């Protein structure tokens, strides 16, 4: 316990990553490429290194998959980049990143995108940008003009980054640049390289910009013999540049001792231990950092990940840095080089304070007991759409399934709301679809307030409103303390039970059916009518609104929501959009974004999109069918492992689905939440009116499905057709998961066909008697749900035509 305080300090520090690179699109960034420095022709050997095996194993542990490259890659594809990035950055605990986005790649995400996961993102400017100007003829202009031109073009940058051999100003130099063609060019003329480098130093000196220099190991083409930082001594002794500030990257490995010496004797030299962590073995990482600290002052050593292409490299860099720094500082205490108090302060310096002071980053000073320098910060942070965004919408879905939002100015969001949330009355989770006031018997009133806390991993620029963003919110009693009535927390809580007790995760994918309506004037009155009367899968019906769908799909792609299929449905003006499957928490979030997108873009085109279950009582209804599967260690374990299963399901799959079928009458009160839902759930309407299941039977409420590529004797998932567009997706999936956890005897899958509840009152009665769902969802939220459902029943029983108002709410 002697070093418990040191360990706790290191584990809790929100680190500053002072050198990293852009994340690439998922299909452009195989994990093997980002976990190895090997060139393409040596990549097959990469998985056999100590560091690769360790790093792969730890990513698998984070994702809950088996420790194989195939299993991890499959998990990444199924989850999507947004989900795995959120997971990696949350686990890492990074407060700020400085990104070198100078690599000219078409498939990289811009700096703004990274702001979805990290509060502050700054930009590092590669010297190639300046070099390109010089090589295109600017070298004939005055130095003053070059500096002004540089600062005009890159006014948001404050760090210069030199990538090349350290032989500049010594023997021979080389550097790679990519110009307009995008093809890399190797420049080996020492005079030319020196010319560019000296100009960069002049810029750095005039504007007090730090210069990061690659030292030690790196890409294959670097001559490691010339990457020894001692080659920089001529430059460091040059009186013109004694005021410049240099950071030697990569722990200068294998020249860490040499780098430590330079930092000890030259005041302008600082050190960074990225790349060495996590690319080396454990022994190599610890040895390298220990060598850096042999001579270097502790306030001149900084952390970075040098992460590239994938979010996993950020996670691994931080995780191992915490472990290595603890080990190194603990040993320094044992050797009596440091006291424990000294070691704690040193950890804060290396992980955050040194970088905050050195790069003049105006964040977190009060948290680290730092006094900001009097000089103004030269870092210009891109806080998510800095140039144009004016409003941020904070979204939540209430007990009745309605989407609601608060909007705040972006500046206030970044300064206040992202940490403290916005206030919301308790009563907002007690409202029905008909009345914006608290329903009786919910135990929620106008007294009391919660905080809507934005989940920053869901922060998105709104594609159809370029000057606005949106973010999903959790409900907290106070920041950090979840409210018992929060739907997103309910799904997380039940999913955790599934994971902790059964080592299972549930994936979900939604099929969204909706009507597109147009406004028509009849007898002096305006009314909404279907845009057409086309038939199921009609090509002309799709062609009529293909432009609309192109815009919707493009917007959803921007929001990282995968669309798998679209077609005209059987109802008048009815369409369906199927989404890709992913972890159920992300699937619920994606469904909210999808509904928002469809409604907004339809409105933009003068149409009304409605997800109401039964828009016209004489027409087919709309559902939000959900496909579900069970995953364990990166494998779909709902599917049978061999042909011996009579139904193509595994034993755990049969038991889980049997639990859902057994609880289906009570689940309906949550996934079919308004009286209008039961006008849809009728025989011979493709919705499933009886408590049964069937293989590829679209009249059953639960259908086992066999997608293309799966042998006919197997099924990969099951579909619940009763789920509709008025349901809160988080509550619905929480109820389904809870029912599956209460696994039933698969024998219940056979036998008679009882009718499912016909009105909402019957499903509510079943729900009130369901102690399993009550226990797993949580008693307080359970009471609120039943209270709102009673209010729905009462209102619509007295107002028979009121269902027509639902098109404006869902």
Summarize the topology:
Elements: H1 4-12, E1 15-21, H2 31-34, H3 50-63, H4 69-79, H5 81-92, E2 94-100, H6 111-114, E3 120-126, H7 127-135, H8 143-153, E4 159-162, E5 175-178, E6 184-187, H9 190-207, E7 211-213, H10 233-237, E8 246-248, H11 256-265, E9 269-272, E10 274-275, H12 276-279, H13 282-292, E11 301-302, H14 311-334, H15 340-358, E12 391-397, E13 403-409, H16 410-420, E14 422-425, E15 449-454, E16 460-461, E17 468-478, E18 481-482, H17 487-502, E19 505-522, E20 525-530, H18 539-544, H19 546-558, E21 563-568, E22 574-579, E23 582-583, H20 584-604, E24 607-610, E25 626-632, E26 635-636, H21 651-671, H22 677-680, E27 693-695, E28 702-705, E29 717-720, H23 729-741, H24 760-768, H25 771-777, H26 779-798
Parallel strand pairs: 1-2, 2-3, 3-4, 4-7, 7-8, 8-9, 9-11, 12-17, 27-28
Antiparallel strand pairs: 5-6, 12-13, 14-15, 15-17, 16-17, 17-18, 19-20, 19-22, 19-23, 19-24, 19-25, 21-22, 25-26, 25-29, 28-29
Describe the structure.
With 810 residues, this protein is α/β, with parallel strands linked by helices. It is 38% helix and 18% strand. The chain has 26 helices and 29 strands. The strands form 4 sheets. Strands 19, 20, 21, 22, 23, 24, 25, 26, 27, 28 and 29 form an 11-stranded mixed beta sheet that branches. Strands 1-2-3-4-7-8-9-11 form an 8-stranded parallel beta sheet. Strands 12, 13, 14, 15, 16, 17 and 18 form a 7-stranded mixed beta sheet that branches. Helix 10 links the parallel strand 7 and strand 8. Helix 5 packs parallel to helix 14 (311-334), helix 7 packs across helix 9 and helix 14 packs across helix 15. The model is unreliable at 129-158, 164-182 and 365-387 (pLDDT under 50).
